[in-house]
Amino acid sequence: MKNTFKILFSLMIVASVASCAEEEGTIYEVLEYETGAVLRTLSVNASLFNNSVDESEFSVTIEEQDAQDGALLESVDIYVTFRDLTSDNGTTIAEDKFIKSFDASVFTTSPVGLPMATVSANYGEAFAALGIASSDVAAGDIFLMELRLNLTDGRTFGKNDAGGIITGGFFASPFVYNALIVCSPEPGTYHVDMQDSYGDGWQGGGLDVDIDGVASFVNMPSGGYPGYHSDEADVVVPDGTQSLTWTWRNDSYNGEVSFQIYSPYDDLLFDITEPSPGLLPVTFCLIED
Question: Which residues, 6+ apart, have CB-to-CB distance to 158 below 8 Å?
Answer without folding.
Answer: 79, 146, 147, 148, 149, 175, 176
